[in-house]
Amino acid sequence: HDHLITSKQLSRADIETVLDRAAEIADDPDAVANRHANAVLGLLFFEPSTRTKMSFETAMKRLGGSVVDMGSVESSSVKKGETLADTVRVIEGYADSLVLRHPKQGAAAMACEFVDVPLLNAGDGAGHHPTQTMLDLYTIRENAGLDDLTIGIMGDLKYGRTVHSLSYALTNFDTHQHFISPESLQLPREVVYDLHQQDDTQIREHEALESVLPSLDVLYVTRIQRERFPDENEYQKVAGEYQIDLETLEDASDDLTIMHPLPRVDEIAPEIDETEHAAYFEQAHNGVPVRMALLDLLLSGGETDE
Ligand code: CP
């Protein structure tokens, strides 16, 4: 079976297959309402989640299936010291596919070695979050198009798994990627190295948004993730930087699309929510058709005929 662990494994054709299927499902969700009746999805979330967990649950139910949920670390036998390997081996016996979020980078890559059912990485520490990337790409395609795209990615680029996954996936398209962050939260050097190897990708790193803002089609804002900092003092040095409000956007294109994986803390002022720029709630809602498409393709072995 296929697992989805990082966006590095995805080709342009893979991405387009998922996005096209998601668009079909969004247009006519009733057509798939019973497509996976009796299918069970196992949810294993070792870290908090609102969107990823609930949109996977909604997606499975809208395909006619159901979910089993390990619950929190505190309420499961993880609390008694059960290993991740044992936990996934047990739950694969209860479910047709597994979704795993874990605080350790590499957790999904390790866990999928122990299971035969498809395992989807729903975030592994500061590593990857490839299903988020799929809904991000879907949202970009709808709002700005994926080719000849100039995107600014701003905030916590060091620990930001949504950023790592998105930047790799975008190398399948013809993109200019501008990375905007404090020096201490720059993209990991190995990611920069990998992106530089891609023919159709141009990347630049900046400490200020100002100079690049007018050229952007999309601005992807991220939260500074307090929980990932080994030292609270280091977090305090950068907390509250890179906030945007209406004044910040004065020089932006009228067509600028603003995205954020959410949750936000204070990076985007609420006054932006009602503008034509704001796409972050639409982005979160796109998680349902996109995850329906992913589950449908994985559970059907890629066979999309009704
Ligand atoms: N974007 C995202 O992964 O949100 P959650 O942490 O709420 O799942």
How would you sum up this structure, described in words?
One of its GO terms (biological process) is 'de novo' pyrimidine nucleobase biosynthetic process. Pathway: Pyrimidine metabolism; UMP biosynthesis via de novo pathway; (S)-dihydroorotate from bicarbonate: step 2/3. Its EC number is 2.1.3.2. With about 300 residues, the protein is of the alpha/beta class. The chain has 2 domains: about 140 residues, 3-Layer(aba) Sandwich (Rossmann fold); about 160 residues, Aspartate/ornithine carbamoyltransferase (Rossmann fold). It is about 30% helix and about 15% strand. A 5-stranded parallel beta sheet has the order 7-6-5-8-9, covered by helices on one side. Strands 2-1-3-4 form a 4-stranded parallel beta sheet. Helix 1 packs across helix 5, helix 1 packs across helix 10 and helix 5 crosses helix 10. The site of phosphoric acid mono(formamide)ester has 9 residues, from helix 2. Phosphoric acid mono(formamide)ester (CP) binds next to helix 2.
